[in-house]
Design a protein that fits this description.
alpha/beta; globular; three-stranded mixed β-sheet; CBS-domain; single chain
């Protein structure tokens, strides 16, 4: 089984805690990512995700231009060691109810893995295991 390091995104994007939610959302859109780590000085203090923006900002009718990332970020950051199997990342995400995990190596965050990364991995894995000309049969439907 493949490890988390092989499917993670390297060099995750960061944002400061005092940045507005609107600015963070624009940065996510430009970078085509669903999360940003929140960095205060040299320390990562949280993660803000598209879900955080929707649930803690938009759905609460907060003024997004004035609302800062620090007010809606998730903390502490959920992490997984890069050497762990992809199955462990999937299980951890399901158990914690999150869609992004920080990937660590020797205690330092080196990347991020998302639900999309896991799904892409399993899609490729499944496709590699199915013979090209595998027999396909329609399900049998019974009527009383």
């Amino acid at each position: 089984m493949s490890t988390v390091t092989k499917i993670m995104s390297k060099n995750p994007k960061t944002v400061g805690p005092d940045v507005s939610v609107v600015s963070a959302a624009k940065k996510m859109k430009t970078a085509r990512v669903g999360s940003l780590f929140v960095k205060k000085g040299k320390k990562l203090v949280g993660i803000v995700t598209d879900t955080d923006i929707v649930r803690r900002g938009v759905a609460m009718s907060k003024p997004l231009g004035k609302l800062t990332v620090e007010k809606i970020m998730t903390t502490p950051i959920c992490t997984i060691e890069g050497s762990q199997p992809v199955d462990d990342a999937q299980d951890m995400m399901a158990d914690l109810g999150v869609r992004h995990l920080a990937v660590t190596q020797a205690g330092e965050i080196v990347g991020v893995v998302s639900v999309r990364d896991v799904l892409t991995f399993y899609k490729r894995y499944a496709q590699s295991k199915i013979p090209v000309e595998a027999p396909y049969s329609e399900p049998k439907i019974f009527q009383d």
